[in-house]
Amino acid sequence: MTSQVSSPAEQTGETAREALRAAGTTDAATTAATDGATEGTTAGERHGATEQRRGSEKEVRRLDRVIIRFAGDSGDGMQLTGDRFTSETASFGNDLSTLPNFPAEIRAPAGTLPGVSSFQLHFADHDILTPGDAPNVLVAMNPAALKANLADVPRGGEIIVNTDEFAKRAMAKVGYETSPLEDGTLDGYRVHPVPLTTLTIEALKEFGLSRKEAERSKNMFALGLLSWMYHRPTEGTEQFLRRKFAGKPDIAEANVTAFRAGWNFGETTEDFAVSYEVAPATSAFPPGTYRNISGNLALSYGLIAAARQADLPLYLGSYPITPASDILHELSRHKNFGVRTFQAEDEIAGIGAALGAAFGGSLAVTTTSGPGVALKSETIGLAVSLELPLLIVDIQRGGPSTGLPTKTEQADLLQAMYGRNGEAPVPVVAPRTPADCFDAALEAARIALTYRTPVFLLSDGYLANGSEPWRIPDVADLPDLGVSFATGPNHTLEDGTEVFWPYKRDPETLARPWAVPGTPGLEHRIGGIEKQDGTGNISYDPANHEFMVRTRQAKVDGIAVPDVAVDDPSGRARTLVLGWGSTYGPITAAVRRLRNAGETIAQAHLRHLNPFPANLGEVLGRYDRVVVPEMNLGQLALLIRARYLVDARSHTQINGMPFKAERLAAALKEAIDAQ
């Protein structure tokens, strides 16, 4: 996973220090107020003093983890900057977790608080689980970025400020009457005032660009500076820029030059007297080949892998919606794997086309977010009635209605469980990390194909846009999802006639046969009106309807899912924290903190939400108190209380952001102490 760091200063003929130097003491100010060692100890406990060495030029200090946040206007390229820094960090071998955060507007008013876009990256030399509670380093490209993010930076943290943007008009837009760089607002922080815009324009003089064109590269200058500061590899970013702007070689070289200028500025300026080294996380990963991956990308690859393992064409019927659109974009690139994507005119058409593809023998998928699920609900009910395999991928976001399109939430669980007319049970699967989206897609496909049912896959914006290292699996280790289509008659009438009954069920799974249209002799009725058991003929018989409703419910209830695993090292815990979906990282980090402080607490996390694991009731009964953290108003807790008569206590948050481990640990400590 590691790659050698090369210096842009060397590439431009300037003297530069050795890229990776064995380093010295931990900088306590830089590493304070983070998620802890394995996100379970305090910064002071983890960051003990180590040997310090000084080179001939600048001091290098070794850290075990760093949290960096890039912030600026939505047009400043902060997501690209963060993504490039993340890619180089992944290639270097650090464990990492990211949190992109951007406005819903395509281009919010420049210089305003609603227009601030940020990208937070937590990287370490050990196993980590979250993007971090608070940034150690904030790169603020303008006054709005500073004001929107300053409250999150702990005292003693580093702030790199683009001083060129702190004009009176820009400061007035966000309510600064005086300059925060001069009025004491930043006292207690280590501030690095850098005229990023001016330095970028100066570095690009030879290219003959207009001021506006040159300014666009200031994010690359900032990226170069941070790459020097934390010894990140550089070759990958330079190659990326040349590929991205292959049709405009002058623009490509201008961005490369700005990137190198940022590196060289860090190398030569006296304001940055120290750089930092975070070693690869060699002990955090099992042997294998790794890559950085986002949740939506992992989910896309999981869908492709599922189709290949089932030997079926993959069909996606979708309508673009944030934050699910990237799945449509990605799958459209993979026609070579038998993937067909259809961008429909609306959500209803998208799922209608997908259900038609399922009827035709494809692994069918529709992707959306919460508002789209509401529109698709009638067709989901149709899929329940037809008993066809269909994956409904819901990348949850803040609601109701349009809500918070670019912010995360877990508030669609009850909609997935009950958001249809009549008794229409649908299995529900939820990934817990960005990389886990790959495995969750395979699991959702297994259930859909085996039991002939639509399946919900509940991801969310935090998982979709966040990223982490992913171990690329061996194809031989992937599950066999092969299916058998009906090929001929499956029932013999009393007079000896052999016929095809479309609702004659597998006695083990209760799945009905899957008959591809056009197969001779397998003609049968299709539609949403209730079917007669076995024959599939239209039926209004009350007894038959009750039988079919109960049978469909029994099919979902009987789905084989693994038992829920409980993490209770001491075996003496009286409090269990139960989570689902993307709360896994913050919950695990909070639990580690408590255990390192001497507390006993158990943890369990659900992937399968319908049906629940068979052992869940027994697990819940072992503990005096069950706490359920959720990014909603307590939807899983409601289901747990109703199903198991357990006094599950909710700890909820619905601010569009993931839980912070420190605050969650405090809430769990209160639960322990209340016993």
From TrEMBL:
<feature type="domain" description="Pyruvate/ketoisovalerate oxidoreductase catalytic">
    <location>
        <begin position="75"/>
        <end position="262"/>
    </location>
</feature>
<feature type="compositionally biased region" description="Basic and acidic residues">
    <location>
        <begin position="44"/>
        <end position="60"/>
    </location>
</feature>
<dbReference type="InterPro" id="IPR029061">
    <property type="entry name" value="THDP-binding"/>
</dbReference>
<feature type="domain" description="Pyruvate:ferredoxin oxidoreductase core">
    <location>
        <begin position="573"/>
        <end position="642"/>
    </location>
</feature>
<feature type="compositionally biased region" description="Low complexity">
    <location>
        <begin position="21"/>
        <end position="43"/>
    </location>
</feature>
<dbReference type="Pfam" id="PF01855">
    <property type="entry name" value="POR_N"/>
</dbReference>
<feature type="compositionally biased region" description="Polar residues">
    <location>
        <begin position="1"/>
        <end position="14"/>
    </location>
</feature>
<protein>
    <submittedName>
        <fullName>2-oxoglutarate ferredoxin oxidoreductase subunit alpha</fullName>
    </submittedName>
</protein>
<dbReference type="InterPro" id="IPR050722">
    <property type="entry name" value="Pyruvate:ferred/Flavod_OxRd"/>
</dbReference>
<dbReference type="InterPro" id="IPR009014">
    <property type="entry name" value="Transketo_C/PFOR_II"/>
</dbReference>
<feature type="domain" description="Pyruvate flavodoxin/ferredoxin oxidoreductase pyrimidine binding">
    <location>
        <begin position="317"/>
        <end position="487"/>
    </location>
</feature>
<dbReference type="InterPro" id="IPR019752">
    <property type="entry name" value="Pyrv/ketoisovalerate_OxRed_cat"/>
</dbReference>
<feature type="region of interest" description="Disordered">
    <location>
        <begin position="1"/>
        <end position="60"/>
    </location>
</feature>
<dbReference type="GO" id="GO:0000287">
    <property type="term" value="F:magnesium ion binding"/>
</dbReference>
<dbReference type="Pfam" id="PF01558">
    <property type="entry name" value="POR"/>
</dbReference>
<dbReference type="Pfam" id="PF17147">
    <property type="entry name" value="PFOR_II"/>
</dbReference>
<dbReference type="InterPro" id="IPR022367">
    <property type="entry name" value="2-oxoacid/accept_OxRdtase_asu"/>
</dbReference>
<dbReference type="InterPro" id="IPR002880">
    <property type="entry name" value="Pyrv_Fd/Flavodoxin_OxRdtase_N"/>
</dbReference>
<dbReference type="GO" id="GO:0016903">
    <property type="term" value="F:oxidoreductase activity, acting on the aldehyde or oxo group of donors"/>
</dbReference>
<dbReference type="InterPro" id="IPR033412">
    <property type="entry name" value="PFOR_II"/>
</dbReference>
<keyword id="KW-0560">Oxidoreductase</keyword>
<dbReference type="GO" id="GO:0006979">
    <property type="term" value="P:response to oxidative stress"/>
</dbReference>
<dbReference type="InterPro" id="IPR002869">
    <property type="entry name" value="Pyrv_flavodox_OxRed_cen"/>
</dbReference>
